[in-house]
Amino acid sequence: MNNFICKLLLTVLLAAILFPQIALAEELVNAAVYWPVESARPGDTLPLAVAIQIQEGFHINADARQISQSNDFFTPYPSRLTVSKLDEGLVAETPLYPRAKRFKAQYAKNGLMSFAGQIIIYLPIKFANELSPGATANLDVEFEYQACTDNHCFLPQTIRLASSLEIKETSPVSINQDLFAQYNARRLSLGNRVDFRFFGWKFAINSSSWTGLLLLLSIAAFGGMLLNFTPCVLPLIPIKIISLSYAAKNRRQCLLLGAAMSIGVLAFWLVLGSLIALVSGFSATNQLFQYPFFTIAVGIIIAVMALGMFDFFALPLPQWLYLIHPEQDTLYGSFGLGILAAVLSTPCTAPFMGAAAAWAATRSPTATLLVFAAIGCGMALPYLLLSAAPHLVEKMPRSGPASLLVKQVMGLLMLSAAVYFIGIGTKTLFASPVGPPNKHYWWPVMAFAVSAGGWLTWRTFQLAPRWPLKTFFISLGLLIMLFSTYSAFKLTEQGGINWLYYSPERFAEENVAGKTVVMIFTAEWCLNCKALEQSVLESSKIIQLLNRDNVVPMKVDITGSNPTGRKMLQQVGRLSIPLLVVFAAHGKQVYKSDFYTTEELYEAVMQALQEP
Fold it and tell me: In 3D, which of 93, 153, 152, 146 has the Cα closest to residue 115?
């Protein structure tokens, strides 16, 4: 009984303290919503202005992007505008907040980024083309904030606002123009901002200044350099290393061969940038691999180069084939090898490159070419450095059984890559964007890889004179065999997630149902996609999360002809894959990344589930 009385008195005391605070905090901030026109037309994108008036002498914390995170014990509560209800046919974009100012506060030694006075938050709303004239579009928004003075803060509050707009075919009448004077400037500022995210590490660059643009180009070049370490380009690196080893004694020839390959890499990326900047309908770095005959042709070229590793070119063959024989390398051959390396890099996306390329595609032709030239320079740099330092490759065996074994193993691995491209090219001819793909082509791909490991193991046992060397290469061969066998089973199994394949109708249906959608963009030719799916999406923690009733795992497969899938990729602001996007209820995008971890994805989905 005494405990009950104590709890009751404590409750009354807390109520006496908090209720006056809540009542006062509600009086400190007022908000209202306004449209720039009296009606909307189907297909329009219009900003909803949320005008907020903050009482003099008080301020509210800034939004999450601008708020200052210090080491103080006090963690500020960010302001946030969210959509709580949205009619079908409406899509809400990212809110545009005003620029915050730093306020001094006794409880935060570094100050706080805050809003004061009158501020306007713009919420762009897309009206679908399918909306019928005469209908009324309705939406509700919620504004969460925490009001503060320089020495204390009130409890966080939420303001709920409803709005509607009639749909008409006629040109709308403009109203409230003073409220929307800063809208275009804020959209432009947001357009100059490039967000990067890599395995939980995220940062942003504003490209509106020369410093920001140079930093963006540097990051694009770094992403281009990392392309050389993706599975897409690796099949060609042994050929270049072997060809440079034959020219290592002649420094001038070695440098010329490296420069020719670098120019070939750069030339391809400049052409690709020109196509994206100037040709209507060409919008993706990986678009070439959506044409099956191109993919099959790439596989055949790699197969021919692999045969060259087995010295099959001793037979009478067309003269052009000798250009890609490692032992008879020429400037033309190196230039072509550079083009082929760049072509093979486009199915993969290196860290930081995808965001830079997506930003460039929405800029002027000059900016587009600058970014794609930076990617090309970054990718070409390792070949130029390798040719300028021939001592790094001159110790490669160029004759005898050891040299022959290296070429034979590399040839078998390249045949594996050739079968892979021919297999996915053939599969693309019969691919369906709304159904699971046939994955049986992985068996012959891995069969060649197993053969490479087995041949390395057997010949090393016969040839290696010393046990340390013999043990290392035998272990390497066995590892290749085991990994390839495991991959064959893993890549052809169904998996633990029941994927729903994307269509606009399916996506809209899940939005209306208020479910969280985890959407991945993938393709059979995207090896980075396969790596992320196996390492992150097939973990037990993520499988359990994505199989919840209120979560929909949705896959957008752009292996073949899938125009709606490619359009969706553009709508979320990307050109390349892999990509994962998490949508909260009613289609609100809360997370987007091309390289992500298990924990990062788990937190993003849990955040989406908590959205109203």
Answer: 146
Which two tokens mark 302? Answer: 């790699």
pLDDT at position 576: 72
Phi, psi of 137 (to 5 degrees): -95, 130
Over the stretch 524-563, which tens digit does the pLDDT of each residue have? 777 778 878 888 888 888 888 888 888 999 998 887 777 7
Structure tokens at 292: 């099956």
**Distance separating alpha carbons of residues 541 and 445, to the nearest angstrom:** 30
3-state secondary structure of 348: coil
Strand 551-557 and strand 500-501: pairing? parallel
CB-based contact 443:419 (threshold 8 Å)? no
Output the pLDDT for position 161: 92
Q: What is the DSSP letter of 288?
A: G
- For CATH 2.60.40.10, the residue range(s) in the chain are 25-184
Distance CA 53, CA 30 (A): 5
Low-confidence ranges of the chain (pLDDT < 50): 1, 7-23, 68-74, 314-317, 322, 326-328, 399
What is the DSSP pairing of strand 579-583 with strand 589-593? antiparallel
Phi-psi region of 312 (alpha: psi -120 to 50; beta: other; left: phi over 0): alpha
Report the C-alpha gap between 539 and 67 in whole angstroms: 34
Q: pTM score, two decimals? A: 0.56
In angstroms, the CA 445 to CA 559 distance is 18
- The partner residues of 101 in beta bridges, in order of sequence, read 114
- The CA distance from 273 to 284, in Å, is 10
Element (H or E) spanning 582, and its range?
Answer: strand 579-583
The answer as to CATH 2.60.40.10 being correct for domain 25-184 is yes
Which residues of the chain does CATH 3.40.30.10 include? Answer: 500-610
Minimal CA–CA distance to 286: which of 428, 382, 423? 428
**Is it true that domain 500-610 has CATH number 3.40.30.10?**
yes
Residue 338: the pLDDT is: 82
The count of other CB atoms within 10 Å of the CB of residue 127 is 20
In order, the DSSP letters of 354-420 are HHHHHHHTTS-HHHHHHHHHHHHHHHHHHHHHHHH-GGGTTTS--SHHHHHHHHHHHHHHHHHHHHH
Spatial neighbors of 322 by CB under 8 A, at least 6 apart, are 313, 328
Sheet holding 589-593, edge to edge: 500-501, 551-557, 516-522, 579-583, 589-593
User: Residue 110 in contact with residue 73, Cβ under 8 Å?
Assistant: no
Structural element, H or E, at residue 3: helix 2-28
- Cα separation of 367 and 373, whole Å? 10
* Tens of pLDDT, residues 256-291: 888 888 898 899 888 888 877 776 556 566 667 777
Q: What pLDDT sits at residue 322? A: 47
Q: Tokens 């495991």 — which residue?
A: 486
* Strand ranges, E, within 175-324: 193-198, 201-206
Omega within 30 of 0 (cis) for the link into 578: yes
